[in-house]
């Protein structure tokens, strides 16, 4: 329960932090949130377009065939007339004619006052064509200074409901209209302004703009209004801004600034494109135009009407209008709900609480799969809300809540595991060694307690003549102090070389390598530690001499083999240790150091696993007490011997093992005379004994009768 309440407190902290960031710094994260939503559009993929919308495209082909832009107005008049003759339902021009046609003969001859002949006025031709066709004009608002002091004419009346003192609808100061001759010829017109988000992306578009106290429609909205026959359009306000727009039963949800969130159908060319050149030359099918919304615009790169959208970095602006018209006709809207902040905060809280509750009952290994499952669930929820329910919810903060909850759960588990580790250490400190406690914490307890066989390198060391030393010291406290002084650097050497201290047997130390965790090169580490201990002993003896007036010597036995490892003992008292014949053999090797006058003795199995080079020589082939099988033993030398001594020793030992005792005796006598040692004296005596008892009865494999 304590762990549960810790999770609840953590969840509330995360909710508070994310909610504060969401409410106080929303704009900081808006760009990233929009990019995440774009990713949802890409995951959804394109959807089929079934609305009667077609784009007449002034494309590269048209410019190449008909000449550079702007075209003469009589050519545009022909384009519009051909569309009207094909029974276009309504024609929208995504362009503005703010200046007179300079290519018109009428404009050219105006520079010659003496000319009195009648010439064509291309602007008049276009105006007559516009007036006789279902053509809607375009214009745009601007914040730049403009000489235009007229206002666009619209036959509908836009009425605001529940107006607020604070005006949320965009209110630019200036606009750019068509020349009066053309503007007055249009039945109606609409602006084609777009709104860029951070980074220049178009994700929403204004449906209405307030200018000089009057509300005016976007080109796409005006085309749909005319299609529905609405005489009045209602702009519905709420306490937080614009809520929606109503016309002839069509309810259009908007954001507070009267923007429509565009539900893009897909990338460029999601709608039917027809080249303007084909329209001019009659190379099109009548059924592709008849009764349809026809938008005239451009995709030519040089005309700079390309826009960045969630699907494309360069979608023609005219196709953005096509998407808006399609959204209005299909009523497939996505919108920010009026209470979007409350919904977003509830989603954030729900994600955090659900994650923390689930993590409370999940095992550590299940946290990542649970995170992935929750992430997928959140993705499905957001996709459902966006494309099925049409609600634009925040993506960044619920996703952040998911990740932060996961991180918090990991940290809590870590803190709890640390506390559990301390509790376990406190409970088991009197029963097992620190190494065992670490293994108990890192592994499942049943795995630890179950006995298992494992190859290890076993180490035994013992102080020689310790009884005499303890009698000399007399005082038990001084004996213990001396032992602690000696044991401390020896134990540190073992642990530094990744060994495990198994136990202290009076003045003896038992250790092993490669358990409870694997230790690569464990035989080398054991031998390296043994050599270091012998080296440390030289300096330590100087300290012991001054403090206790004693000097100590140790023998070390090392053997590598398979042992049984696990927790062993009684119900009330147990220890994590190793047992087996190979443990006993290592102990016997330590005992042999006294007989052979060697400091470090290793078995053949240990020697075979050594990777580094050490000064090593073979000592003997022996049967230790309690074992029938003979083993070869080796001495690890603390210092390099002379090459002459090593060569002569190898020769003498080979002669002995070949049962050439007389020759071996001579060789060992020479060695003893020149390099006196316990080992040479031992072999000298064995040779004499073999000659005395006879070669037939002499056993050249040494059998030990004591431990």
Could you describe the 3D structure shown?
There is one protein chain. With 707 residues, the chain is of the alpha/beta class. Helix content is 45%, strand content 20%. The chain has 23 helices and 26 strands. Strands 18, 19, 20, 21, 22, 23, 24, 25 and 26 form a nine-stranded mixed β-sheet that branches. Strands 1, 2, 3, 5, 6, 14 and 15 form a seven-stranded mixed β-sheet that branches. A four-stranded mixed β-sheet has the order 4-10-11-12, with no helix packed on it. Strand 10 and strand 11 form a beta hairpin. The longest helix has 33 residues, at 396-428. The model is unreliable at 427-433 (pLDDT under 50).
Brief sketch in words of this structure:
The chain has 707 residues and is an alpha/beta fold. The chain is 45% helix and 20% strand.
């Amino acid at each position: 329960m304590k762990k549960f309440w810790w999770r609840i407190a953590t969840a509330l902290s995360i909710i508070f932090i994310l909610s504060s960031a969401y409410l106080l710094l929303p704009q900081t994260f808006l760009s990233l949130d929009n990019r995440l939503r774009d990713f949802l559009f890409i995951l959804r993929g394109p959807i089929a377009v079934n609305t009667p919308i077609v784009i007449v495209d002034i494309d590269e082909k048209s410019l190449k065939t008909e000449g550079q832009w702007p075209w003469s107005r009589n050519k545009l008049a022909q384009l519009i007339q051909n569309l009207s003759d094909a029974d276009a339902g309504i024609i929208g021009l995504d362009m503005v004619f703010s200046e007179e046609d300079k290519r018109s003969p009428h404009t050219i001859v105006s520079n010659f006052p003496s000319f009195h002949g009648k010439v064509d006025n291309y602007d008049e031709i276009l105006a007559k064509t516009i007036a006789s066709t279902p053509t809607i004009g375009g214009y745009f608002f601007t914040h730049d200074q403009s000489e235009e002091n007229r206002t666009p004419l619209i036959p509908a009346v836009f009425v605001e409901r529940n107006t607020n003192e604070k005006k949320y609808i965009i209110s630019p100061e200036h606009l750019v209209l068509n020349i009066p001759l053309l503007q007055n010829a249009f039945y109606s017109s609409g602006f084609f302004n777009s709104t860029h988000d951070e980074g220049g992306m178009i994700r929403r578009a204004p449906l209405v703009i307030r200018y000089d106290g009057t509300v005016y429609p976007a080109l796409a909205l005006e085309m749909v209004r005319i299609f529905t026959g609405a005489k009045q359009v209602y702009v519905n306000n709420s306490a937080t801004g614009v809520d929606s727009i109503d016309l002839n039963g069509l309810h259009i949800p908007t954001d507070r600034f009267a923007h429509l969130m565009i539900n893009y159908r897909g990338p460029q060319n999601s709608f039917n494109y027809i080249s303007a050149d084909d329209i001019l030359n009659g190379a099109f099918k009548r059924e592709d135009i008849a009764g349809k919304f026809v938008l005239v615009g451009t995709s030519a790169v040089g005309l700079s009407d390309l826009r960045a959208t969630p699907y494309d970095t360069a979608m023609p602006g005219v196709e953005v209008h096509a998407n808006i018209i399609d959204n209005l006709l299909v009523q497939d809207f996505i919108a920010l709900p009026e209470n979007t902040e409350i919904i977003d905060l509830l989603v954030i809280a729900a994600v955090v609480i659900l994650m923390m509750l689930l993590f409370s009952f999940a095992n550590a290994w299940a946290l990542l799969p649970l995170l992935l499952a929750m992430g997928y669930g959140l993705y499905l929820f957001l996709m459902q809300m966006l494309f099925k329910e049409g609600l634009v919810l925040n993506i960044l903060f619920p996703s952040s809540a998911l990740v932060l909850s996961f991180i918090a759960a990991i940290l809590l588990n870590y803190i709890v595991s640390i506390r559990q580790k301390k509790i376990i250490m406190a409970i088991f400190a009197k029963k097992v060694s620190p190494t065992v406690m670490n293994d108990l914490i890192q592994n499942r307890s049943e795995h630890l307690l179950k006995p298992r066989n494992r190859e290890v390198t076993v180490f035994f060391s013992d102080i020689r003549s310790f009884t005499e030393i303890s009698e000399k010291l007399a005082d038990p406290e001084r004996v213990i102090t001396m032992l602690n002084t000696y044991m401390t650097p020896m134990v540190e050497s073992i642990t530094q070389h990744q060994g495990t201290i198994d136990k202290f047997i009076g003045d003896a130390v038992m250790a092993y390598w490669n358990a409870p965790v694997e230790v690569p090169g464990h035989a080398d580490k054991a031998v390296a530690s043994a050599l270091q201990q012998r080296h440390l002993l030289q300096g330590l003896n100087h300290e012991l001499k001054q403090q206790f007036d004693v000097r100590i010597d140790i023998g070390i036995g090392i053997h590598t083999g398979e042992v049984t490892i696990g927790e062993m003992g009684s119900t009330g008292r147990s220890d994590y240790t190793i047992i087996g014949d190979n443990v006993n053999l290592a102990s016997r090797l330590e005992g042999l150091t006294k007989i052979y006058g060697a400091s470090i003795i290793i078995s053949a199995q240990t020697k075979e696993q050594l990777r580094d080079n050490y000064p090593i020589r073979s000592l003997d082939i022996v049967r230790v007490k309690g074992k029938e099988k003979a083993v070869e033993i080796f001495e690890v030398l603390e210092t390099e011997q002379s090459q002459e001594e090593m060569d002569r020793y190898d020769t003498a030992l080979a002669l002995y093992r070949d049962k050439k005792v007389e020759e071996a005796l001579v060789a060992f006598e020479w060695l003893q005379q020149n390099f006196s040692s316990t080992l040479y004296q031992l072999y000298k005596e064995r040779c004499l004994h073999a000659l005395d008892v006879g070669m037939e009865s002499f056993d050249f494999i040494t059998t030990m009768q004591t431990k």
